[in-house]
Specification:
Blueprint: H1 3-18, E1 24-26, H2 49-63, E2 68-73, H3 75-78, H4 90-94, E3 99-103, H5 122-136, E4 141-142, H6 159-171
Parallel strand pairs: 1-2, 2-3, 3-4
Helix pairs in contact: 1-2, 5-6
């Protein structure tokens, strides 16, 4: 909510642009996880978290000539809106960025599986999420982060696991 913090990031992005950086990516752009009792932010002004992030990205977009991108939770591709109240709504962010990188890590999708045990059905979730994102953001570059480590998928971890993720991402339009 603090414009001073936003101004600092915009100034930093401008400085990077003037020094030859060809893209600015806002890594993990979000508000902290909401607890049962949502905290009151010092500079809160009644806007939603989604509006704050989208308006920040709009300000950055106006300030820069180079492309801008963001990375977001993979969940944002699977559901509409901002399910975790973190300010990540890809349709709103997509108005101001050239690329979105959903974090489609298989081990982070454990809540979709019985007993929270990720199975090879994770490929279908990756495909579904990226396909839905492509339908919602037809003109944006989708650059998903895919999992290249065995955590949470040891039972089917292999070189083929990585290749299969790449294949489903491509087929989904990423």
């Amino acid at each position: 909510y603090a414009l001073e913090a936003q101004d600092y990031l915009i100034d930093l992005a401008r400085d990077l642009e003037s020094n030859g950086v060809d893209e600015i990516q806002f890594d993990y752009i979000r508000f902290p996880k909401v607890l049962a009792s949502e905290p009151r932010w010092l500079h809160s002004d009644g806007r939603s978290r989604t509006e704050v992030i989208a308006q920040f990205l709009e300000r950055v977009d106006r300030a820069l000539k180079i492309p801008m991108s963001v990375d977001v939770y993979g969940l944002t591709t699977l559901v509409e809106g901002d399910p975790r109240h973190l300010g990540q709504t890809i349709e709103m962010m997509g108005r101001y960025v050239e690329a979105i990188s959903p974090m489609m890590y298989a081990n982070g999708m454990h809540t979709y599986f019985p007993e929270k045990q990720v199975t090879e059905g994770v490929y279908d979730l990756i495909h579904c999420g990226l396909w839905r994102a492509r339908q919602r953001l037809p003109n944006l570059v989708l650059r998903p982060f895919l999992q290249a480590y065995p955590d949470g998928v040891r039972s089917f971890w292999s070189k083929a696991f990585i290749h299969r993720q790449l294949d489903v991402a491509r087929r989904a339009g990423a």
